[in-house]
Structure formats: C-alpha cells, structure tokens
C-alpha cells in the first residue's frame, strides 16, 4: 500500500510511484537498480503505483517527524554548522553562500554541508524529548526511530485508523504543540497565577500532563532540592513561600526554559501527508552511512560511532578534488587540501565521496 521511490546512483532525479507486492520483490528491484536513496511513502494508497496523485486513493498517513541538527538553535549558535560552496570542475572553495558561480571557470557551484558530531548529540536529545511527548502526552504506542544516516533523526508514528486521516491542518496543530514558541509559553506561564495577585501560584508538576508537565520537567533543573521533589511528585506539599520562590525562578529563566521546551522538528515534514520517508537501515547517499534503525526507540543506547554507521569493513584510497577545512567526522578531526591522496576507513572516505569533494582511487580490502 506504500509508494516506493528511489534516487538512482548517478541521477539527480527521482524514480517515483513504484509499487511492490512483497518485500522480496522490492529487494530484487533494489539489487538490480542500486539506488543512492530509497524512500517509502508515509501514506497508504489503494493504488500506490498510480503516477497521478489524485488517483492513488489515499488511505491515510503516518505521522512523521524529522529532527535535523543543522536546524537546532544551539548548534547554529555555536558555529558548528559548516557550509561551503565549491566548484566540482576546478576545486574552487568559498564559505559565502551567496556566491553561486565559480569565478575561475564559470561553473555552477555545489554545496558542502557538515555538522559537528556534538550537534548529532543535540539532535538525539531533541528526538528523545519528542518521543517522551508522543508517548506521554499523545499516548501513541506504535512509534519507531531511526538515525537519518547524515545529521538527524526520523521518528514515525504509525497511526490507528481513527487518526490516520488527519489533514495537514490538524497535523499543523500537533507541530505547534511540539515546537512551542516563546509567545505560547509566556501565555501559559502568565496563566499559572490565573491573573489574581494574591493567588497561590500553581507550580507545574510532572503529573499535570500536557504543557505543564513539559514545563515541570525543565523547571525541576532550576529549583532547589525540596522544590524539585515536589515537582517530581516525590513530596506531596509545598509551602506558600516555596511556591512563590519557584514561580519567581520560572519567570526569571523563562527565556531559557522556553528554549529547552521547544523541540526542533521540521514543520514541513510533519504536515506533508504524502511525505517520502527514508527507509530505515538503508544507506544514505549523502554520506554512505546506514540510516540505523533504533531498537525500542531507546536513544540512550544509540552511540554515534563509525562501527554503527558503516555498512562494510574496508578502507578506501581517495583523492580530494576540493580543499576541506578542519572538521570532525564522527570521532576524528580531519583537514585536507586539494590534490591530497589518503587512505581512510570506509565511513570517513564515503563521507567525502558522497559529498563529491573527493574521488575513489582504489578500494583496499
Ligand atoms: Zn571552477
């Protein structure tokens, strides 16, 4: 019932509207048409292979989330997103995004994007927060998580028949609840005291549910031990003075608390009811790494290592066609000049090959 789409190895276009009646048939197709990327539709259709979208007969869609490290505020702020433009023809490199054509040879410039591994950890934390909200606040149970194979995570909720037919507008409301902007949080915090000057502030606790539960989880890190125990439901009462103080702390740190509450999902992905999802455990053609399926959504068990992302145990001799500034790939700091010939383990070599800044000289077994 799913549409399958691939991007062939040597083409920039997609082959879409593929449909298969069994996994064996799909596997056979992939082996005979080795793709750079493989996707499946978040939607189910009566006729997934029909090339006319309106004639596919939509049968509802999964709820899909994409967390991309280069969209995470802290990652950008710390300058850990590296963006270069380079010329495939002559190796010219520039870090100004507005330069579109090569000043040496007039060719169109390509884009090189990299995020430091610290950002993958940040993305992982956002993904864990998202899973908590999906489970605790929405009660979803049919969730799976995968590393994107590049710089983020995909979280997919397979919805029951009752929810599968949600429109884009309804999905946008879910996005808003998950992304929470500062304005929304300020509104909620102001209403914690219900507008009455003498009222006792109702400090959010983890059993409150909804946004109050999410605020409680963050606020717990800012208050002293006894108040934290109250917020975490380890103590049943709190004094008026303690409550007032906790509320003052909440107001004082509201900007940081808001930032900690916001989950960096890509709204476009979630509201799209015909989104193409990268197939878990397939190889991401931007890096050559496995888009690792994460068992039981247990992100604490996911360690971003070369071991986990490599599909093959081999070394490659590669030659750089473009100079690359000092960047950290997975766990190793690397820097190369144009013309450098080096032998690297597969996950490091494939990263440069698939980003098209180096070419394979030989494969060493
Ligand atoms: Zn050039």
Number of strands: 20
Structural class, judged by helices and strands?
alpha+beta
Spatial ordering of strands, largest sheet: 2-1-3-12
Which overall shape is indicated by the principal axes computed on the Cα atoms? globular
The biggest beta sheet is recorded as: 4 strands, antiparallel
The Rg value, from CA coordinates, equals: 24 Å
Mean pLDDT reading: 94
Query: Are there runs of 5+ residues with pLDDT below 50, and where?
Result: none
Helix content: 25-40%
Number of helices: 13
Oligomer: single chain
Bound molecules: zinc ion
Question: Which range does the strand content fall in?
Answer: 25-35%
Beginning-to-end CA distance, first to last residue: 41 Å
Brief write-up:
With 365 residues, this protein is of the alpha+beta class.
Molecular structure report:
The protein is of the alpha+beta class and 365 residues long. Among the domains are: 61 residues, no CATH class; 88 residues, no CATH class; 80 residues, no CATH class. It is built from 13 helices and 20 strands. The strands form 7 sheets. A 4-stranded antiparallel beta sheet has the order 2-1-3-12, with no helix packed on it. Strands 6-11-10-15 form a 4-stranded antiparallel beta sheet. A 3-stranded antiparallel beta sheet has the order 8-7-9. The longest helix has 20 residues. 33% of the residues are buried. The structure holds zinc ion. The site of zinc ion has 8 residues, from loops.
């Amino acid at each position: 019932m799913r549409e399958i789409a691939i991007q062939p190895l040597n083409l920039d276009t997609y082959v879409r509207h593929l449909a298969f009646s069994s996994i064996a048939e799909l596997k056979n197709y992939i082996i005979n048409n080795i793709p750079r990327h493989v996707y499946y539709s978040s939607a189910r259709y009566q006729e997934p292979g029909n090339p006319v979208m309106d004639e596919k007969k939509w049968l509802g869609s999964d709820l899909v989330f994409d967390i991309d490290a280069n969209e995470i505020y802290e990652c950008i702020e710390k300058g850990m997103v590296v963006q270069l433009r380079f010329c495939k023809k002559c190796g010219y490199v520039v870090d100004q995004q507005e330069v579109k054509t090569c000043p040496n040879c007039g060719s169109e410039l390509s884009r090189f994007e990299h995020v430091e591994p610290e950002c993958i950890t940040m993305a992982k934390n956002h993904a864990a927060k998202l899973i908590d909200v999906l489970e605790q606040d929405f009660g979803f149970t049919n969730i799976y998580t995968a590393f994107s194979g590049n710089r983020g995570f995909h979280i997919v909720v397979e919805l029951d028949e009752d929810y599968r037919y949600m429109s884009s507008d309804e999905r946008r409301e879910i996005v808003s609840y998950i992304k929470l902007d500062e304005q929304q949080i300020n509104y909620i915090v102001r209403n914690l005291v219900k507008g009455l000057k003498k009222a006792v502030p109702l400090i959010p606790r983890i059993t409150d549910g909804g946004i109050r539960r999410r605020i409680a989880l963050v606020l717990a890190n800012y208050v002293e031990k006894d108040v934290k125990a109250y917020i975490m439901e380890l103590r049943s009462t709190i004094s008026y003075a303690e409550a007032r103080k906790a509320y003052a702390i909440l107001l004082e740190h509201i900007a940081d608390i808001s930032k900690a509450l916001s989950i960096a999902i890509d709204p476009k992905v979630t509201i799209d009811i015909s989104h193409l999802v990268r197939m878990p455990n397939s190889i991401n053609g931007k890096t050559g790494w496995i888009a690792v399926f994460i068992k039981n959504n247990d992100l604490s068990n996911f360690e971003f290592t070369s071991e986990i992302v490599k599909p093959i145990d081999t070394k490659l001799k590669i030659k750089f066609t473009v100079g690359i500034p000092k960047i950290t790939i997975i766990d190793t700091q690397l820097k190369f000049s144009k013309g450098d010939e080096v032998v690297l383990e597969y996950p490091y070599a494939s990263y440069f090959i698939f980003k098209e800044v180096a070419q394979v000289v030989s494969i060493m077994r």
